[in-house]
Structures are given as C-alpha cells and as structure tokens.
Amino acid sequence: MAGKVPRMKLGSQGLEVSSQGLGCMGMSSFYGPPKPDSDMIALIHHAIASGVTFLDTSDIYGPFTNEILLGKALQGGMREKVELATKFGLSFADGKREIKGDPAYVRTACEASLNRLGIDCIDLYYQHRIDTRVPIEVTVGELKKLVEEGKIKYIGLSEASASTIRRAHAVHPITAVQIEWSLWTRDCEEDIIPTCRELGIGIVAYSPLGRGFFGSGPKLVSELSDQDFRKAFPRFQPGNLESNALIFDRVNAMATKKGCTPSQLALAWVHHQGTDVCPIPGTTKIENFNQNIGALSVKLSPEEMTELESCTSVDLIKGDRSPNVLWTWKNSDTPPLSSWKA
C-alpha cells in the first residue's frame, strides 16, 4: 500500500504531511477503555507503511498515556518517518480541571510531552483550547521561544476563534488550525475557514466522520461502552438519534449508488473541501483504517457535493455537536470547564 496516500503542504510555513492523518485519541481514552498497546502499535506501523504519516495526539488523551503509546510506536527508526502533532492546554493537575496558557505552563507541558514521546522536537504543537485569562500574544510568544530553541517546529491552534487566530498569527506564523469539520458539523465555514485561507494557515479536520456516526449510523450508539464519552453527545440522545438516522440513511443510499461505504463518502466530502484541508479520522482497527484510505479514491462531482450537502443540511440535524461548552468556540474561544465530563 506504500505510496497510495499523496502528500500535501499544510499551511505556508513549510510543513509537509500525508493528505490524510491518523487521530490517535481513541486508542487510549474517551472512546471506551484503552486498547492493547501491541494492537495499537501494529495499527500505527501499518498506517506509516501505508503512507499515513501525520499522527495526532495530545497530553490530555489518557491523560498522558496516548503520548506514551506513540513514543513506544516511534522507536526503532519510526520517528523519522512521521509528522507528529501533539497539544497542550487542558490540565487536570491536583484534581482541578482548567485551561492553561501561561508561559510557564506552556514550557512545562512541552518538556513533559517531549519526554513522554521520547523525542527532542515536536513537529506541530497546538494549543488545544484557548486560555481566555492569558492574552493569546503571551501564549504564542512562549511558543515562538520554543521554536527558536528547536523544541517545536510549527505552531498550531485548536478550536480558536477567527479573531484569536489573527492575533496569534501576528506574533508568529500559525501553521495549522484544528477544527471539527464534517458533513454535519459545518459552523466553522462561516469565519474560521475564510480566516485560515486568507492567512495561509492549513486546516486540520478532526472527527470528519461525525464521531463515527457516518461509519455505521445509529447502531454505533448501541455498541458504545459505558466508558465512551460519546454516550453524552446530544446528537446521540433518544429523539435526536432517530431523526439523525434519516440523515445516515440518505448518505448510505448515496454511497451505495456510488459504490463506496458511507464513511468513505463522508470523508471524501471533507477531502473535496480543498487542498489545504487534512482530515484526521481516528480508528482502532486496521480494517477501518484501510477503508478510510479508500476515501482518497472517491471522486465527487459538484452536483454530488450539492446533493450530499442537501442530505445533511443544518436544519435536518438534531442536537448540538457536543455535550457541553468545552468543545465549542462559537462566541468566545473557550468557555468554563464546569460542565465537562471526561
């Protein structure tokens, strides 16, 4: 399968990545109990051999255990074959949940991630959520120092507002902004996407399969473990789920006609948003990974894109995209953590 996945420039600062990445969060946390290290390392190695070299993690996944897993997977010469992205900004220290972006924390978090990953430089380092108590200029100022010291190569932001992206970019060029973007989560298209394109910032789309919904539809919810935080998602609640199942049915019918799976169709839609967009679907199964790679071969005409978007228009979708305020940036960067349950 080597060579099957094309390469792309992510942003305008020189970073080159595989045109599809691999989200690693679900291997260790949030989507049910942690999976066996040996299986996940085999999956990561399979991804790299297939040409998917852009790996996405964060210190909060676990917390910490996902970075440790990646560190194990990248031993034995694998580090040189990948573009590694991790994040900082969500802290659970001393049982206290908070978002932090002060310079001392930025530096401490970076050093800790380098140590867990077993590397000396992070390719792309994101601020996972924006600390509204600290001016973004101050946070990015510290990240700029880490670039100058060779501890990180490129700077990213996750779930930041358009104004914050502009202010951050004025201090040091931002290489990528990570946002939730899928057939049924499109609110970023209003301000975030145009701002990134104006500034030459790459776009990394997380949850491009609608938290897995476009993989198997409503049956996904009945298969989730009690430890899977998707169980709290509004779109998966009784009432909303039945309505949203109709959306899946329409996408599935279109996929059948197209000769691909619904997940491939949904992922292909994200790929067709532009050459500056890199989706990072996550999985814990090699067969699902292979299916996701197949999305790169699905070509959609403008008419098919329009039809797909009419099947999933915002007025048809029932429920917010996330169970609480942590995951949204609509009016401010990051609201309080009070209602977040990890």
TrEMBL record:
Residues 24-311 form the NADP-dependent oxidoreductase domain. GO terms for molecular function: oxidoreductase activity. Transmembrane segments: none annotated. One of its GO terms (cellular component) is cytoplasm. Pfam families: Aldo_ket_red (PF00248). InterPro entries: Aldo-Keto_reductase, NAD(P)_OxRdtase_dom_sf, NADP_OxRdtase_dom. Keywords: NADP, Oxidoreductase. Belongs to the aldo/keto reductase family. This is NADP-dependent oxidoreductase domain-containing protein. It comes from Rhynchospora breviuscula.
